[in-house]
Write a structure and sequence with these properties.
Strand content: 15-25%
Structural class: alpha/beta
Radius of gyration: 22 Å
Distance between the termini: 28 Å
Largest sheet: 8 strands, mixed
Number of helices: 11
Shape: globular
Number of strands: 12
């Protein structure tokens, strides 16, 4: 299966300070290597501030990057001129987290859905455009009769459906969904997740799905990548990763997910809460919080390495772990 997005050794920094303080570079993404395959839903999971949204912005071309390679549909983003990049934008779209702020309150639904076509000069014939608008509304479960309404006349779930319809307007190959259900009620979340899954299957979309919730990622994603401090620390098929996590950080995340069976919950180790400041600058970003830390082993560069499970990779110098870690499964 070919990769639509191929990222190798990506590094992204922001310049902070200036004026009265000395300017410094803060590294957000650290040698990220990951791929998004054709017709795949890839989940990107990690705590707030770890760099998930920054990675999404780099893929969409909204943020420049300092080093490494980012290929989208076999085109290196840093080498594209303005015209080439505008054409590429048709093949990659985004659904933002907050449906309330992602839609212009002064535009009707018809204007919101038509705007991508106006920008790219598509479907200029009025009759064809009206048919396409009806198809988009029906595809996301909305009544075409509501095309002349404004965003404030819809609920949060309906607004997110409109945002998804806008993303589908140009028939993209890649969809980036940045926590699209986190601002919605639980019952509405299920509807949107089912919609995304159905649309991905019907239209052959490749989806990068960013989330905090392992339950959501398990339901929707084919593979899951776990990010910590701008680095991918574990990646693999969703079920394998959740049933037998290998990286200590993935263990900690899964340990924080409560289980309904008290006996299973009792067998788990508690979520580590220590933080050793003396290890903050270690080569392993998780060393300061890791209860497996060994000074003789862990002071070496750690890259994603295949575990005993095919397709399951982990960035830890203590690989391969000998113990089965299914007690952390969710």
């Amino acid at each position: 299966m070919s990769a639509l997005v191929e990222i190798k050794n990506l590094t992204k920094s922001y310049r902070k300070g200036g004026w009265f303080a000395k300017a410094q570079d803060k590294t957000i993404l650290r040698k990220v290597t990951i791929s998004l395959r054709e017709h795949e839903i890839l989940g990107l999971v990690g705590e707030s501030g770890c760099g998930k949204t920054t990675l999404a912005k780099v893929i969409l071309g909204l943020e420049p990057y300092q080093s490494g390679s980012v290929q989208v549909l076999k085109q290196e983003l840093n080498k594209l001129n303005k015209a080439q990049f505008q054409y590429l934008r048709r093949d990659m779209q985004v659904v933002f987290q907050d449906p309330y702020s992602s839609l212009d309150p002064r535009m009707t639904v018809k204007q919101i859905l038509s705007e991508p076509w106006d920008i790219h000069g598509l479907h200029k014939d009025k009759t064809i455009r009206e048919e396409k608008l009806k198809e988009l509304m029906q595809a996301v479960g909305l009544d075409p009769a509501h095309l002349h309404r404004y965003p404030h006349e819809f609920s949060g779930g309906q607004r997110q459906r409109i945002a998804i319809a806008r993303a589908l307007a140009l028939a993209p190959k890649i969809l980036v969904a940045d926590e699209p259900v986190s601002a919605l009620d639980v019952s509405v979340q299920a509807q949107i997740l089912n919609l995304l899954k159905e649309i991905s299957r019907q239209r052959g979309l490749s989806v990068l799905f960013i989330s905090h919730d392992f339950g959501v990622a398990r339901f929707l994603c084919d593979r899951i990548a776990v990010m910590y401090q701008g680095k991918i620390v574990e990646c693999g098929p969703a079920e394998k990763l959740l049933k037998n996590p290998q990286h200590p950080y993935t263990e900690a995340l899964l340990s924080a997910v409560p289980l309904p069976d008290p006996n299973l919950q009792k067998n788990r180790e508690p979520v580590p809460t220590k933080y050793d400041l003396s290890l903050a600058e270690s080569l392993c970003p998780y060393a300061a919080r890791c209860h497996y830390y060994n000074v003789q082993v862990c002071e070496q560069p750690s890259a994603l390495t295949e575990t005993k499970e095919k397709g399951h990779q982990c960035a830890c110098t203590r690989l391969p772990f000998q113990n089965d870690k299914s007690r952390y499964a969710v």
